[in-house]
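An example makes the point: we print one protein in full, the chain in one-letter code, the fold tokenised, without further comment:
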Amino acid sequence: MREDNSVKISPATIVMGLAALMIFGLFGWLTFGPKPAPLPPPQLSLEGRQYLQSLALSNVHMQAAESYVNSRLVEILGDITNNGDRTVKLAEVTCVFQDYSGRELARERAFVVGATAPGGSLKPHTTMGFRLPFDTIPESWNQAMPTLIIAQIQFE
């Protein structure tokens, strides 16, 4: 008499195994698959470019402090003045940090008016202070004041 040593798998087990493989494959593709390209940062509109001459940054200086987790916190402090006739709801600057050879090292965007900036809107012919904290600047930064470029303006 001959014994049958073959393994018998029921059709239900095969279907469940294939379903589990498909679920794990879909999970892996969604987790590790292609990511959509990040949206480009907002651009300065034509209206904003025309109004740019009405905004002035002044008294801009830096200070550094050690944070609670033993990392360096660099702050850029200054004033922004609205010399125009429109209320600015939001103004965002791009801070360009350079290394010791003058090459661009990092770009950080921050709000000087509106969004997370204290003080709300900037009315015509007024000045308000701003504070831009940075704690992720690379160590190879040249410690000089970054270049500040007004990158976005929105009006009320």
